């Protein structure tokens, strides 16, 4: 009888151990496979026709290390995209930069070198979700305002590009009748220029037939970079105060990196202007790599003096001719 009780007690202990083990593994499993979350954060939660608002696609990694995101944003037909902003995106390298198509959809694909777990915030003493992209949208007509996604994937930074489980929260609301009593826009203002940058001059047998070219890039943490402009200014003109300022401010032209330099002698001042999507500007300047020699300046001024004498003489000659007539 004692043996039977001892055996039964052993069975109970074993069963209890198995039960505890299963509960532990279940809780551990639930904790480790928690899904990343893609959701839309909006500056409005109710909508009227004519509203212009910002919708932000956010990624909550749930403490997983993410290095790639791709998908498609689908907008209802009564929404119009005014701007697409990626200045503060966690995506550092766009494989497919988001752009609107005729179906009112935005496909996107990007990589986060080094991975992303969350944005450290001292205020909340933890990690915050990251911004994938921002959209400035306008409500054109009544009906359902809806922002959804399709074909969306999030990949882990595990060296194998493992696809992680994903939860997606859409944005949906019915437009209200009438007009908004408060402001019709709810968009953050961007008054900060692009970040400081330094263009670099280089050349390579594989680029522009070994001619000198310019490489440049910067970032903008507000609305993002819209375009770049370049101006090559002769040092002689540059050093004439009123003329130099006029030429510099009025002769910029849109350019992309790498840019083939017109002055292959590298004697010009080079100005590169970065313009963000809010119109803020940042200008970087490179001094001549091969400065003018003193006799080149002298020759220029001799030409200017001779031209001035010629103009004065011609004017005086015609003045005498008119007085005789």
What would your notes on this structure say?
The protein has 325 residues and is an alpha+beta fold. The protein folds into two domains: 34-182, Immunoglobulin-like; 200-289. It has four helices and 20 strands. It has helices at residues 2-32, 235-238, 241-250, 294-324; strands at residues 36-42, 52-60, 66-75, 79-85, 93-100, 105-116, 119-121, 126-128, 130-139, 144-156, 166-169, 171-174, 185-186, 200-202, 213-215, 225-233, 253-255, 259-260, 269-276, 281-286. Strands 1, 2, 4, 9, 11 and 13 form a six-stranded mixed beta sheet that branches. A hairpin with a 4-residue loop joins strand 7 (119-121) and strand 8. The longest helix is centred in the N-terminal third of the chain and has 31 residues, at 2-32. The chain starts with a helix and ends with a helix. Residues 16-33 have low confidence and may be disordered.
Topology overview:
Blueprint: H1 2-32, E1 36-42, E2 52-60, E3 66-75, E4 79-85, E5 93-100, E6 105-116, E7 119-121, E8 126-128, E9 130-139, E10 144-156, E11 166-169, E12 171-174, E13 185-186, E14 200-202, E15 213-215, E16 225-233, H2 235-238, H3 241-250, E17 253-255, E18 259-260, E19 269-276, E20 281-286, H4 294-324
Parallel strand pairs: 1-11, 2-13
Antiparallel strand pairs: 1-2, 2-9, 3-6, 3-10, 4-9, 5-6, 7-8, 10-12, 14-15, 15-18, 16-17, 16-19, 19-20
């Amino acid at each position: 009888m004692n043996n039977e009780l001892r055996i039964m007690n052993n069975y109970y202990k074993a069963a209890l151990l198995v039960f505890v083990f299963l509960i532990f593994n279940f809780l551990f499993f639930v904790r480790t496979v928690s899904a990343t979350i893609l959701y839309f954060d909006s500056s409005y939660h109710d909508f009227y026709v004519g509203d212009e608002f910002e919708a932000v696609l956010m990624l909550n990694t749930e403490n997983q290390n993410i290095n790639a995101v791709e998908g498609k944003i689908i907008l209802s037909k009564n929404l119009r995209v005014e701007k697409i902003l990626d200045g503060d995106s966690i995506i550092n390298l766009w494989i497919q930069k988001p752009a609107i198509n005729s179906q009112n959809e935005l496909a996107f694909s990007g990589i986060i070198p080094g991975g992303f777990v969350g944005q450290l915030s001292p205020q909340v003493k933890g990690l915050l979700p990251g911004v994938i992209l921002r959209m400035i949208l306008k409500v054109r007509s009544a009906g359902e305002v809806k922002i959804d996604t399709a074909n969306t994937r999030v990949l882990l930074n595990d060296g194998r590009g493992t696809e992680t489980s994903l939860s997606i929260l859409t944005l949906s609301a019915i437009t209200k009748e009438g007009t908004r009593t408060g402001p019709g826009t709810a968009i953050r203002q961007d008054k900060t220029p692009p970040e400081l940058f330094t263009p670099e001059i280089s050349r390579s047998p594989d680029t522009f037939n070994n001619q000198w070219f310019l490489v440049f890039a910067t970032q903008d943490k507000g609305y993002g970079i819209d375009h770049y402009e370049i101006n090559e200014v002769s040092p002689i003109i540059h050093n004439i105060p009123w003329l130099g300022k006029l030429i510099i401010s009025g002769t910029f032209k849109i350019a992309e990196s790498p840019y083939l330099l017109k002055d292959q002698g590298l004697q010009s001042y080079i100005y590169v202007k970065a313009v963000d999507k809010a119109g803020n500007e940042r200008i970087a300047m490179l001094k001549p790599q091969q400065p003018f020699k003193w006799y080149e300046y002298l020759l220029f001024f001799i030409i200017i003096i001779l031209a001035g004498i010629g103009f004065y003489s011609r004017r005086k000659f015609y003045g005498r001719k008119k007085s005789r007539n």
